[in-house]
Design goal:
The chain is mainly alpha-helical. The protein has 13 helices and four strands.
């Protein structure tokens, strides 16, 4: 569920040693410069926000190193962007030491990624604090998997205060990024233990994907989640247009167009890129409000990878 918080737009104004320091501008500059070197940071940062907020809330718990932390959970082994956050944190600490949380940096960086990818710019609230706990078991239990059913997905998102239209919109983060063969190979060769391909997948796409993902190969290749090659790296509604013609990669991608609970939103977002951009910005904003820690809870980490003062062991 979503906790009430004291997060505000422009929270950091006047809170740095130099009152004129613009924290959001520092984040923007860092993300932009890193994007120039590696455009794949766009899906990395969007996914990083989702994987952080969906477990213990938006508290940067996914960034913590260590044994059996969220970072070590199987769904998070392919999450990237940690070095991007480290560089932003270094730049922010140089101008505003000990003030800006890693949790807020994730939220601000994801917003910049959406905008650099061609999506709509949106205001974000800041004032979150960083969590002190990160457990692999939480990530394993709470992160949705690629083969989750629509009903289970709706229930999982609802437990975090996110309704069905926003769920469908957030899944639209698949407009950028890729999936590995292991996450959808069953749809090509043994859907529901039938020994056949998923009948809801376009037959030509099945043929193409089988070339990338051979049945008996141990190589775990990647494919774009948005099969429109012209916009596979652009934050737009092309992903929905592709699943409308049965070209979804993950099972959940295709099933949101087939289920009566979610298909109306798919149809709307496929119809209008303007509507998608507005709703995606709003959904990311709502995702950033899930179980936020504010003062006096949590802390402001010096390093995003470790807590400042570990809590005493429980007796």
């Amino acid at each position: 569920m979503i906790m009430q918080s004291t997060c505000l737009v422009g929270y950091y104004k006047g809170k740095c040693p130099n009152n004129c320091t613009d924290v959001e501008a520092i984040v923007r500059s860092s993300v932009t410069s890193q994007f120039g070197l590696d455009p794949t940071i766009i899906p990395q940062l969007i996914r990083l926000q989702f994987h952080d907020c969906f477990v213990r809330g938006c508290d940067a718990s996914i960034l913590l190193d260590g044994n059996s932390t969220e970072k070590t959970a199987t769904p998070n082994l392919t999450v990237r962007g940690f070095n991007v956050i480290d560089r932003i944190k270094f730049a922010v600490e140089d101008q505003c030491p000990g003030v800006v949380s890693c949790a807020d940096i994730i939220i601000m960086a994801a917003r910049e990624a959406v905008f650099l990818g061609g999506g709509q710019f949106y205001n974000v609230t800041t004032g979150r604090r960083d969590g002190l706990i990160s457990l692999e078991s939480d990530a394993l239990a709470l992160l949705p998997h690629a083969n989750i059913s629509i009903s289970d997905s709706i229930a999982t998102f609802a437990s975090r205060g996110i309704d069905v239209p926003d769920m469908v919109t957030l899944i639209g983060g698949h407009t950028v990024g890729f999936a590995r063969c292991s996450s959808f190979k069953d749809r090509l060769y043994n859907f529901n233990n039938t020994g056949q391909a998923d009948p809801t997948m376009d037959t030509l796409l099945v043929t193409v994907l089988k070339q990338t993902c051979p049945q008996n190969s141990a190589t775990n290749n990647i494919v774009n989640l948005d099969q429109n090659t012209a916009s596979a790296n652009t934050v737009d509604n092309s992903y929905y247009q592709q699943i409308k013609i049965n070209r979804g990669i993950l099972r959940i991608d295709q099933e949101i167009d087939l289920d009566f609970q979610t298909s109306p939103t798919v149809r709307l977002l496929a119809y209008s890129n303007v509507i998608f951009n507005a709703q995606f910005a709003a959904a990311m904003f709502k995702l950033g409000a899930v179980n936020v820690l504010t003062e006096p809870l949590g802390e402001i980490r010096t390093s995003c990878r470790s807590i400042n003062h570990p809590p005493p062991p429980s007796r």
